[in-house]
Amino acid sequence: MPQGVPCHARRIDIMGDDPHTCPTRLVDARNIGVRRNKRWIIRQVDIQVTRGELVYLIGANGAGKSTCVKALLGLIRIDEGEIEQAPGLEVGYVPQRLSVSPTLPLSLRRLVTLTGRFSARDIDAVLAAVGLEKLGDPPVTTLSGGEFQRLLLARALIHQPDLLVLDEPDQGVDIAGAEVFHELIEEIRQDLDCGVLLISHDIKMVMDADSDVVVLVPHEHDQQSPGGAAQSAGHHGSDA
After folding, report:
1. What angle do helix axes 175-192 and 145-157 make, rounded to 10 degrees?
2. Cα→Cα distances 209→98, 129, 181, 227, Å
3. Over the stretch 47-71, which tens digit does the pLDDT of each residue have?
4. Model pLDDT for residues 57-106, shown as the tens digit of each residue
């Protein structure tokens, strides 16, 4: 992406709002922008995630996807717009990658509990939920890429999150493994009735999904503002 070119979000609504239901909105970002070193990383981005909803955030490398998520979670400040979170929002985060030194004696079950103390029953439950219950307690450095991603997911689930955020969780996983992983996420969303925000660069997979999509699109020129404006478009008729 050219230097100095901000990204704005285009939201593609698959399911129309049902006037008879009032789902719990977990996070609501309106017209947010993040500016660093005199350059807009993202600008005029609107994202809403409600309980039980899966929202994809897609864009090219360098489009500001991770920056956008960090802003939504309050990890970095925003320079314009506003973000509202549901009171007491519990977030489970699955990073794109987590480096573990091969000399560090870190076992599977220990990684799950790094962020707090949990009962053996809770640990067993989340490991079963991601299909790792039969592995025992091996060093995490011996796990395959797919097994390690499932372990990071279990680590996020043990907090029983209202909002599950996944940063390109299929990185380092083959196509078959990625499909299984996404099916697992869908099962977890339905079981927990949690909101899910999933960062991805796989446009084909996203467009095949029956979910809302937010696309970060770089715009060099805009008559109204340097950063463009958020636009809405139909699922099959938009440019990403």
Report:
1. 10
2. 27, 22, 14, 28
3. 999 999 999 898 877 788 889 999 9
4. 988 777 888 899 999 999 999 999 999 999 999 999 988 777 777 777 88
Q: How far apart are CA 121 and CA 65, in angstroms?
A: 35
Q: Output helix, strand, coil percentages for the chain, rounded to the nearest 5.
A: 25, 30, 45
Beta bridge partners of 10: 215, 231
Residue 237 token pair: 């008729």
Residue 102 carries which side chain, given as an amino acid letter? P
**Rg for the chain, CA atoms, rounded:** 19
The number of residues in the chain equals 240
How many Cα atoms within 13 Å fall on the side-chain side of residue 39?
13
**Torsion sign over Cα 174, 180, 184, 189:** positive
Contact 165, 73 (CB under 8 A): yes
> Which DSSP symbol is given to 141?
G
**Helix ranges (DSSP H) in the chain:** 65-72, 108-112, 120-129, 145-157, 175-192, 203-208
